[in-house]
Write a structure and sequence with these properties.
The structure is a single chain. By secondary structure, the protein is α+β, with helices and mostly antiparallel strands. It is 35% helix and 16% strand. The protein is built from 5 helices and 6 strands. The protein has a two-stranded antiparallel sheet. A two-stranded antiparallel ribbon has the order 3-4. The chain has a two-stranded antiparallel sheet with strand order 5-6. The protein folds into 2 domains: 34-90, Arc Repressor Mutant, subunit A (Orthogonal Bundle), CATH 1.10.10; 97-170, no CATH class. Helix 1 (34-53) packs across helix 2 and helix 1 crosses helix 3.
Length: 185
């Protein structure tokens, strides 16, 4: 009689067990659809929560309504385990590509920014713009006067003129509620 090997059945929604040494498939930095772009942006947001608030992967994933396994597929290279079977921790920085909407004198444009430090600097600028538009206080905009951001091969001058920012806000072209642009790569 031949030995029949039985395969363990895998329930729907669960991944197959990996063989020893087999790598996890990482998704491309360039989303192929709007749904992938939204999922990738949520995974990046989980990474931000883990860094700023020192949350676990599970807690940060719950906040963004995304599975921890999906986060690991998208941004797993920026997450480390302290020991085998231990807690996941985010690294201090990464070099992931982020598509960010940035206000310019002619209206918002989408720029490709590489690295968490560059994205954090742009986020501080956008927070300063939002603070000015809510309160009229220009103090937080002063550190950004005359500054430019290099995105790819183009240099973009940051808009700090209160009149231009007010004009853009009145035209309803500033969308400061979300850092990442949602578009296909």
């Amino acid at each position: 009689m031949k030995n029949k090997t039985r395969r363990k059945s895998v329930k729907k929604g669960q991944s197959k067990p990996r063989a020893k040494g087999q790598r996890v498939h990482r998704l491309s930095a360039i989303p192929r659809s709007d749904r992938q772009a939204q999922t990738r942006n949520r995974a990046l947001s989980v990474l931000v929560h883990m860094r700023r608030e020192h949350l676990s992967l599970a807690a940060a994933s719950r906040m963004e309504h995304i599975k921890a396994a999906t986060v690991l597929r998208y941004v797993g290279s920026a997450i480390r385990r302290d020991q085998s079977g231990g807690r996941y921790h985010a690294t201090k920085g990464d070099r992931f590509r982020r598509d960010i909407q940035l206000p310019t004198a002619t209206g918002p444009i989408t720029v490709q920014v590489y690295g968490s430090k560059n994205a954090e600097n742009i986020s501080k600028y956008l927070n300063a713009v939002g603070h000015y538009l809510r309160t009229g206080d220009q103090a937080k905009l002063r550190p950004f006067r005359g500054k430019t951001i290099t995105a790819g091969k183009q240099r973009i001058k940051l808009v700090t003129d209160p009149d231009k920012l007010s004009l853009l806000a009145e035209a309803d072209v500033l969308h400061l509620d979300q850092l990442y642009a949602s578009r296909k790569g």
